[in-house]
Amino acid sequence: MTPDPECVRSSDSVRHAARRMAELGVGSLPICGEDNRLQGVITDRDIVVKVIAADKDTRAVHVGELAQGEAVTIGADDSAEEILATMGHHQVRRLPVIDGHDLVGIVALSDVARALPDAPVGTLLEALSVDR
Questions:
Q1: If you count Cβ atoms within 10 Å of the first and of the last residue's Cβ in the chain, which end, N or C, has fewer?
Q2: 0.85 cut: is pTM over it?
Q3: 100-114 confidence digits (pLDDT tens)
Q4: Is residue 65 domain-shared with residue 79, that is, in the same domain?
Q5: What is the rounded distance in angstroms from the CA atom of residue 99 to the CA atom of residue 46?
Q6: Which neighbouring-strand residues pair with 75?
């Protein structure tokens, strides 16, 4: 798990979020409100598909415009098996970790892979590769 992840605000421009992703070497960032509560997650794919491919200006589009519904999260005490099941069900490779209402980290598929035998991880990779 990556503890204390950096957030972007829903009012930040997509350009700002993309630059922070590049600087941090990550493919997603949590979107947090002024109260530091998780509002969603923005991914590099969101930026490419919903902004760049749609010929929108990355400086004019706000991060909050890309957040859809409630973010899929896991609890700080969830087991590796529960995390793997959540990733597979929602076809995601990264999940925000919540303790109460506080964002405490981001867990990636690679974190889970180190904690579990190869077979369940292989099954998840197959599930993530299927288009829905």
A1: C
A2: no
A3: 888 999 998 888 877
A4: no
A5: 26
A6: 98
